[in-house]
Specification:
The structure is a single chain. Helices cover 15% and strands 44% of the residues. It has helices at residues 2-9, 74-81; strands at residues 12-26, 29-40, 50-61, 64-71. Strands 1-2-3-4 form a four-stranded antiparallel β-sheet, with helices on one face. β1 and β2 (29-40) form a beta hairpin.
Length: 106
C-alpha cells in the first residue's frame, strides 16, 4: 500500500486533504468531509488543478487511528454508512480533530 501511494504521489507537486466538516458517528468513528486538492508536477500531463468532494472515515481507539477509509466521493461515504445527509455538530474548543494526513508518506 505504501508503494502504491508513493507512485500516485510522484506525479503531484501538491496534493492534500482539506477538512470541511466533522461528524462523530459513535465513540470510535469520525466521518470527515473535505476536498482533495492537488496540482500536478510540470513534467506530467496537465488537466488543471484537481479538487474533489471527498470523505475520510477514521476509526479511533485509545486516541489513535486504528483504521482509515478513504472515499473519493463524499456521497459514497454516506451511502456506505446508511446516512442521508451531512448532519454535523459544531466543533467546540474541547473537541479534537482527527490527524490531518494520518501519517501518509509522500
Amino acid at each position: 500500500m505504501t508503494e502504491g501511494w508513493r507512485q500516485f504521489r510522484r506525479v503531484w507537486a501538491e496534493y492534500h486533504f482539506a477538512p470541511q466538516k466533522y461528524r462523530e458517528l459513535d465513540g470510535e468513528r469520525v466521518l470527515v468531509r473535505g476536498r482533495f486538492i492537488g496540482r500536478r508536477k510540470a513534467s506530467e500531463p496537465a488537466e488543471g488543478p484537481t479538487r474533489s468532494n471527498a470523505a475520510r472515515l477514521f476509526h479511533i481507539r485509545d486516541g489513535k487511528v486504528t483504521r482509515l477509509v478513504l472515499y473519493a466521493e463524499a456521497d459514497s461515504a454516506l451511502a456506505d454508512l446508511g446516512l442521508k445527509e451531512w448532519r454535523c455538530r459544531r466543533r467546540t474548543a474541547k473537541a479534537s480533530a482527527p490527524p490531518r494526513d494520518a501519517g501518509l508518506a509522500k
